[in-house]
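Worked example 2:
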Amino acid sequence: MQGTIVQISVSRGGLPKRAVSGGLITPIGIEGDVHAHPGIHGGPDKAILVIASEVVDDLAARGYPVFYGALGENLTTRGIRVRDIRVGDRIRAGGAFLEITGPRGPCSALHIYGESIKDEVYDAAVRALDSASPRWGLSGFYARVLTPGPVGAGDIISVEAALA
């Protein structure tokens, strides 16, 4: 499965994250990106947050005031079927190699876009890692960094199945 990275986003902490032309993915995230609540977000197992542009576009079409980077993602992708991503999948993002560690559990900071937005993208089944949930993949996925490397808008992102 292959797609494109449409936006790289960083912030000095909190939402939204703002677009940058590119960056260096390190073992603890994209250089220059800061987490407002490092006990909840970030760290080696949540170094990168990946969200599909199709999810953001759908939320915007339904009236939520969101845009790429608004949900706190570092990599906004296009062309990746999030319903098919599983924990343990390996991802090539530009020059970096990542591993999906789990779905993102949306925090209350997203309420700035509407109190119901969390229910649109996440449910108890996703929390239980049930990929049959109709909301699977909509909240994005956290990833750990296996191999650091550069990443930029327009780079290819490809998903490989988890190692057996």
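The mean pLDDT is 92. The longest strand covers residues 2-10.
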